[in-house]
Amino acid sequence: MCTFVDYGKRLKAILVSQNIYIQNGVLDIFSKIKSKLKFLNSMRIYLLLAFILLGVVPLSFFSQVLLNTYEENAINNLVAELQNQCNMLSKSPYTTTYLTTGDVPEFDSDIAKIAEIYHGRIIIVNSNLNIVKDTYSLYKGDYLISEEVIQCFNGTNQTYHDRQNHYLKLTYPILQLQDDKAQQESKEVAGVIVMSFSTKNIQSIRDRLEQRVVLFAIALAVIIVVFAIYFSGILTKPLTNVVNSIDRLTEGFMDESVSIKGFNEIEKISDSFNHMINRMQKLENSRQEFVSNVSHELKTPITSIKVLADSLLMQEDTPVELYREFLVDITDEIERENKIINDLLSLVKLDKTSGDMNITSININELLEQILKRLSPIAKKRNIELIYESFRPVIAEVDEVKLSLAISNLIENAIKYNIEDGWVRVSLNADHKYFFIKVSDSGIGIPEDAIDYIFERFYRVDKARSRESGGTGLGLAITKNVIQMHRGAIKVYSKEGEGTTFNVRIPLNYIV
């Protein structure tokens, strides 16, 4: 029997499950919308929008500016012409008489012509604010009391343009003329000319111009859009080719190169991509060769050990001397196997514990002396002279074990790949910030086309000689890794047949 509490728990579980279902549904909807709108993040879309904005928007802006400039200039010209007509009327010899009597046929004729030419209305107001003349004959004899007229009597001309109703209104003073010595106009205002003219003609012309501009803008916008689509396609096509080449590369077709012609930047991308493919191909070949070499190197000592052991087991009453000889050979093979395994383990350990540095302050001079002392027996076997030069005492913060491994690899390589009766010179110097180790030899040198790859893992310059000397192609990779872990740098200078020089630079104080 279920209690009320049980029903409450069930209801709560149902609500929670429904809430989760709704949330998942909303997330699915958003993910679908996002996947459908993914094309908006295309470079071609951005280029298309950029071309449209740079073409259509300025065109619309300048079209509007052109139309507004035409309208403004037309209004200003009309105002200037009307003011000129007002000036002529105000200076007419009939003006004074007309303001008094309002009956001068010549003056009426002039006013009527101006009103007819400009399709407007002219009102003449005397000093008593009485309307002397109204070309519309509506308010003649009445009084005209307005702010514009009053201000004009006070010496302020008014010009008003009603853009919404399309008419222009202006006031102009009629100055009373006096015959004084200079025959100059007095500042006394005898009357006011009020003009009202329609600007629909200007607006009509502006509308027709706007229609033509709009048609021109639409045609030009279509051309711009077509050009933008075409040009954006041209710009993005090389990038699409690069993407397709990368896809082909991921499918395993590493022998294909990319040849893209066009802008310099695109061609540089093509060249860089081809260079990357070549590097990857060489690295892949080196890795495959390394696997083959390591398999061979690991298998050969084991095979030799098995053959030697089987030979001993097959012989009865084997002399002790023969046992000793076979055991020495077995020991040598075991040592060879151990060296290969140690190099592999060292490289793997450096990769996995690159941040695990046991930093201590040590004497670099003593460290180099110990390394040279440990490698001197190898040099003596080939009669190679080891030369050590120290220009000053150097104390630095380093990982002694790792740095000793890196420097030992450099010096050991200089000994192994040297000529008989040659020399190896190791020098140490320092400044206020770094210490410098130089390892030079009189050896066989490195081919120019191999210098860029010697620090890559599994790469060996002279594969036959490396196998004879026990090299695995990992020594320089380990060395570079260790030096970079110390925030240092290594450079190589070599000429085939004349020897090689490695320059190492490491900070005196370890930088975390």
Automatic annotation (TrEMBL):
| Histidine kinase domain: residues covered | 293-510
Enumerate the UniProt keywords alphabetically: Kinase, Membrane, Phosphoprotein, Transferase, Transmembrane, Transmembrane helix, Two-component regulatory system
Q: Which GO molecular-function terms appear in the entry?
A: phosphoprotein phosphatase activity; phosphorelay sensor kinase activity
Please tell me where this protein is predominantly located. Answer: membrane
Q: Which GO terms describe its cellular component?
A: plasma membrane
SMART domains, A to Z: HAMP, HATPase_c, HisKA
Query: Transmembrane region positions?
Result: 45-67, 213-235
Name its cellular compartments: Membrane
Q: Output the GO biological process annotations, alphabetical, semicolon-separated.
A: cellular response to phosphate starvation
PROSITE patterns associated with the record? HAMP, HIS_KIN
| Keyword Transcription regulation belongs to the record | no
> What Gene3D superfamilies does UniProt report for this protein, alphabetically?
1.10.287.130, 6.10.340.10, Histidine kinase-like ATPase, C-terminal domain
Q: EC number(s) of the enzyme? A: 2.7.13.3
- Classify the source by domain of life: Bacteria
| HAMP domain boundaries | 233-285
Which InterPro entries does the protein's record reference? BphY/WalK/GraS-like (IPR050351), HAMP_dom (IPR003660), HATPase_C_sf (IPR036890), HATPase_dom (IPR003594), His_kinase_dom (IPR005467), HisK_dim/P_dom (IPR003661), HisK_dim/P_sf (IPR036097), Sig_transdc_His_kin-like_C (IPR004358)
Reactions it catalyzes:
ATP + protein L-histidine = ADP + protein N-phospho-L-histidine
Q: What is this protein called?
A: histidine kinase
